[in-house]
Design a protein that fits this description.
By secondary structure, this protein is α/β, with parallel strands linked by helices. It contains 4 helices and 4 strands, in the order ββααβαβα. α1 packs parallel to α4. It comes from Thermanaeromonas toyohensis ToBE.
């Protein structure tokens, strides 16, 4: 089981950071392969949810072999994947806008049970966006093979 949650709530399982950096005092093991970083290492930031979805799919595709290994490992463990995002920190959107939601879409597609917490249960992206994200990711992976 994978729990997608904020650093600022009690971890439901062994915590791992999937953020670009961690809050002061946190030392969770990092799953950098899932962090919202472009292929060149720059952060994905200051873009619309639609553009973010496109960029994150491309970023994951650029490191697909490592992403695939991480997803396979997550099938075997209970983990809390933590990021900064929560509704209190994110005033600009009515629904939560966090890359961990996109991670959840990927994990569910791979058969991993996922629990969305700390606002992630009401994402900015809908089912059509989920399908688009997975389609872009598949196309980008194929293009790079």
């Amino acid at each position: 089981m994978v729990y997608l949650q904020s650093f600022f709530s009690e971890p439901r399982a062994t915590p791992y950071s999937v953020a670009r950096w961690q809050p002061r005092g946190y030392r969770y093991p990092e799953l950098r392969v899932l962090a919202p970083l472009l292929p060149d290492g720059r952060p994905i930031k200051r873009v619309s949810p639609d553009k973010y979805l496109d960029l994150y799919a491309g970023a994951l595709a650029s490191r697909w072999q490592d992403v695939k290994k991480t997803v396979s490992w997550l099938k075997k463990v209970d983990a809390a994947l933590c990021c900064w995002c929560n509704p209190e920190r994110q005033k600009g959107y009515e629904k939560l806008f966090c890359h961990t939601i996109l991670i959840g879409f990927l994990l569910e597609e791979a058969g991993v049970p996922v629990v969305y917490l700390d606002g992630r249960e009401k994402p900015v992206w809908d089912e059509a966006d989920r399908a688009r994200f997975l389609k872009i990711l598949r196309a980008e992976v194929l293009k790079r093979q």
